[in-house]
Amino acid sequence: MLRCLTLVLFLATLVYSHDPLRNEYIRIKAQSSGMNPSIEVPKTRRTLSVKAADQAAIDPNLFFPPLPGQSNNDFHPQLRAIPNENDTLYYYSWHIHSYFFHENANVTARALAIRTEFMKYFNIEKCLGNCFMGGIFDNCTRMCVWDPVMGVDGPHPYGQWGVYLPNELLQDTLAWMSENHGEFEVLFHPNTGLMVGDHDSDRRAMWIKQTVPLDLDFLRWLQCKWFGCSDRF
Q1: Hey, what's the signal peptide range on this chain (predicted)?
Q2: Are 134 and 143 in contact (CB under 8 A)?
Q3: 95 - beta bridge partners?
Q4: What is the pTM assigned to this prediction?
Q5: pLDDT given for residue 42 in this prediction
């Protein structure tokens, strides 16, 4: 008993002895201009989820048209002018992507079983026609799922199944996916007309579980090829 009490007192002394050193360090750090840099306030911008009444946001002249021979499924609608930092960024819709290793039959079966349950829960069907971004851009009128992709597709490095998601259903689908994603990584990304930043987890993309290394260089190349190069996205 005495040994235990002695040990406790010894440890308490060690903890206490560090307090003055810590306080001295904090005081010196505060007094030193070199060790006390000014805190940079992060820049924020206004965002707005687009509804049918937002006429300023849904003006088709704000976007590049499809190139000859392209449908709205072949490319991401891209803003003609990159918004400034003080401009409102409009969110037109969202996509969900759930990733799986398509070369493994058991993994693929489990991933597609979650897809089936998702479709049942939200009472949705497969996307038809040119359904990509919604609104003025194509014929998307409600949430739907695309056919699963068994391999590389654009920036996506392996198998995935995807969802077209209207803004008003983001909360419900995010809640369902957070509970039911299983072993699979899930990407939620907005569609703003700035395709690189929409897929970038350092910008606007959100992940459940962990990130998958998307090929953002492919999207940068595509942006340069179709719309002109820009570091602002």
Answers
A1: 1-17
A2: no
A3: 164, 189
A4: 0.79
A5: 75
**Segment holding 47, helix H or strand E:** strand 47-49
Domain boundaries, the chain: 87-227
Q: How many residues make up the chain in this entry?
A: 233
* Inter-helix orientation angle 170-180/105-122, to 10°: 140
What's the pLDDT tens digit per position in 34-76?
555 566 777 788 888 887 556 566 777 888 877 777 665 566 6
What residues pair up with 90 in beta bridges, in sequence order?
48
Question: Which residue matches tokens 């687009």?
Answer: 50
Q: Give the integer Cα–Cα distance in Å for 133 and 83.
A: 19
Q: What integer pLDDT is reported at residue 121 of this predicted model?
A: 98
- Within 82-218, strands assigned E span 89-91, 93-99, 144-145, 160-165, 186-191, 206-208
What would the two tokens of residue 181 be?
């994603």
* 204 exposure class (CB count in 10 Å sphere: 0-12, 13-18, 19+): buried
Token output for 82: 């990159």
Query: What is the tens place of the pLDDT at every residue in 103-114?
Result: 999 999 999 999
